[in-house]
């Protein structure tokens, strides 16, 4: 495979262990934790060109580039990160960590407790090391920001040129701007919402119930039983995919087209192409994502609610923001629709926050923030170009 | 309890056994079958005042009235059926059967095969009788109409004054008007669609996977294992409820209100009220509905597609309709939105079918067709009053 010239190329993740205890919103404390992260581009001499990328529910620290020559696919935000792209690695030093509670190397449910024999989260024999499982504390968006702030300090970055993310990542960007106004120059908040609606929570709840009720879940200790709650996680992921694609995108992609096998008049056969697509997505997911992490991430979504600490007054919650903000929504996104993004924008305007807003007309639903949509890339790039380094 | 005066009062279901074989769309034949049904009101002398009610996915033949003095709740369409109501039992003789493949007395997955020791579907000891389970053939909307046509003949009804239903019931009303143009005077098609969208099918598929992957499903033979796929059916029902309520209705009903227990920072605790609501709906459902029937009903929805036999030309498919049609949609219904109802209406107009259409502005989502919404009841009643008997 030839790696495209507008890619950051081959990258290797790094891991850093943070020693100091981290107090969490849930009242518990992590004695210490590891964060795995990737970086792209070069930090400039005055350390003013760093951009933090926050990932969404099922993503990780691998936002761009390839892990090796024959890696079949690049990081999850390859469309936006690279030389000459909106997150231009010729200008920015880009940092993307895996969130605390994640399953790709940062301390989380599938890593062993630090007080046990361990030389690192993934360096332990699962047959002997004991993993957190559901003993891992609930983490919130605020906790993530707190843990990422230490990563910034460790890297010698006093102030991010920008913090950016889509979906749950956008919520972290917003929380960063609220919690560390003097450490964020620009916040890029894409396909997000100021908090989940009852319907959003309802979808998360169904996904969680599917996992929790899988007998192979073993109350989160499936690692010890050499089991995986495959069925529950698959159903959760299939459901997620319905909310990532909009109705029109599904119609255009699949319509009512039948699979090669045609109509079989069976409750379990895959007849319509959309069934096959969802099943494939679900099955592929269970092999590379941890069910406990999925539960934690959905909870972090449910709990996110910056206005809650301010008597439900979002403008009041955002009034401390010093960063220039850029909010983007997609017309066909029904998970976090433009209406939800506008709630953020309206509250920012009320709070005299410097905000720009772009509503991108397109047909791909929530997943659009990952896609090479020309107008989206154009406005995104226009904003990042305006960032003075 | 005092039974309201605008109720049909205490009713008892009847069962009829149909001897003649019924050829099904799937290519299989039922040697015979039982239909359980209820009737309200009186058949007039020239048998011209009969109205057939077709039920939706999880309903049954008990559309109105009470089964006994202390019955805590009436039939599922009590808001619309009764003396002085839109389906006025002072004028109409109302018939509502449980669909073939149902689980409330008509022949279905939970009834025994007729060639085995049985004196009726529910009169068999489940320990000795063998139930169909997933051996029950897939039934389609057309099959239901075919089976109901025999019920009409048995009752001496040559022509229905009207066939009416909401959601999957509305699809049956439409199919009746297509398949038996000379036996339907009026078709009342509420909150329906001419066929499922890819997204509709996707939701059905997730629900089915939740059931099929429950280890207590035993490939549909859970009756024999004294088991119930409770978890899968619960998840399926929870998901269904999200699609029955719209986002606004959920917000108004629950918002982000917390349960009495407050925030517990646990992945399995019920914290937001919407979670508790869905879990309650799911748990209540599994005790009175059969999982195999749920699978069959979702398949009937997926397969419904009258235009398919006419080169995807819906107007062509509807051109044989002789009935006056009344189509109703609800603005907040996102399962089968007004856009989908208008597809039916537009095709009817193109096909010169006599059609009236009402779009009811309200906030309750798909479930609105069951609710006492004044404008809905008013236009519904106006239409039924215009039916000459």
Would you kindly provide a written description of the structure presented here, covering whatever features stand out?
- Two copies of one chain form a homodimer.
- The first copy, chain A, is built from ten helices and twelve strands.
- Chain A is an alpha/beta fold.
- The first copy, chain A, has two domains: about 15-195 and about 305-385, 3-Layer(aba) Sandwich (Rossmann fold); about 205-295, Rna Polymerase Sigma Factor, Chain: A.
- Chain A has an eight-stranded mixed β-sheet, with helices on both faces. A two-stranded antiparallel ribbon of chain A has the order 2-3.
- In chain A, strand 11 (about 325-330), helix 9 and strand 12 (about 355-360) form a beta-alpha-beta unit.
- In chain A, helix 1 packs across helix 2 (about 170-180), helix 3 runs antiparallel to helix 4 and helix 3 packs antiparallel against helix 7 (about 290-305).
- The longest helix of chain A has 15 residues, at about 200-210.
- The model of chain A is unreliable at about 115-130 (pLDDT under 50).
Radius of gyration of chain A: 21 Å
Oligomer: homodimer
How do the helices and strands follow one another from N- to C-terminus of chain A?
EEEEEEEEHEHEHHHHHHEHEH
Largest interface: A-B, 59 and 60 residues
Strand content of chain A: 5-15%
Mean of the pLDDT scores of chain A?
93
Secondary structure tally, helices of chain A = 10
Biggest sheet strand order of chain A reads 1-4-8-5-9-10-11-12
The CATH topology of the largest domain in chain A comes to Rossmann fold
CATH superfamily of the largest domain in chain A: Alpha/Beta hydrolase fold, catalytic domain
- Just name the CATH architecture of the largest domain in chain A: 3-Layer(aba) Sandwich
């Amino acid at each position: 495979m030839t790696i495209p010239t507008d890619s950051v190329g081959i990258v290797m993740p790094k891991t850093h262990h943070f020693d100091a205890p981290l107090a969490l919103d849930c009242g518990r404390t992590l004695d210490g934790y590891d964060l795995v992260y990737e970086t792209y581009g070069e930090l400039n001499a005055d350390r003013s060109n760093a951009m933090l990328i926050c990932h969404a529910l099922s993503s990780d620290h691998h936002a761009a580039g390839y892990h090796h020559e024959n890696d079949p696919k690049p990081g999850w935000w390859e469309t936006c990160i690279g030389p000459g792209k909106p997150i231009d690695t010729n200008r920015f030093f880009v940092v993307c960590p895996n969130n605390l509670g994640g399953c790709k190397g940062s301390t989380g449910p599938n890593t062993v407790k630090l007080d046990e024999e361990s030389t690192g989260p993934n360096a332990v024999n699962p047959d002997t090391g004991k993993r957190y499982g559901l003993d891992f504390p609930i983490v919130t968006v605020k906790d993530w920001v707190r843990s990422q702030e230490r990563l910034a300090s460790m890297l010698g970055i006093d102030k991010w040129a920008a913090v950016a993310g889509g979906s749950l990542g956008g919520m972290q960007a917003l929380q960063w701007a609220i919690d560390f106004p003097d450490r964020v120059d620009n916040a890029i908040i894409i396909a997000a919402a100021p908090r989940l609606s009852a319907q959003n929570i309802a979808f998360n709840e169904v996904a969680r119930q599917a996992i929790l009720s899988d007998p192979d879940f073993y109350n989160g200790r499936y690692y010890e039983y050499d089991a995986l709650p495959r069925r529950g996680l698959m159903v959760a992921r299939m459901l997620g995919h319905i909310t990532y694609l909009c109705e029109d995108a599904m119609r255009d992609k699949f319509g009512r087209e039948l699979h090669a096998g045609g109509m079989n008049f069976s409750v379990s056969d895959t007849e319509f192409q959309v069934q096959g697509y969802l099943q494939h997505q679900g099955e592929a997911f269970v092999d590379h994502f941890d069910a406990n992490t999925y539960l934690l991430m959905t909870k972090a979504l449910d709990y996110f609610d910056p206005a809650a600490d301010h008597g439900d007054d979002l403008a009041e919650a955002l009034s401390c923001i010093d960063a220039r903000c850029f909010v983007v929504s997609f017309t066909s996104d029904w998970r976090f629709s433009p209406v939800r993004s506008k709630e953020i924008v309206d509250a920012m305007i009320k709070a005299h926050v410097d905000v720009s807003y772009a509503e991108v007309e397109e047909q791909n639903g929530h997943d659009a923030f990952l896609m090479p949509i020309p107008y989206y890339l154009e406005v995104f790039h226009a904003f990042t170009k305006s960032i003075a380094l």
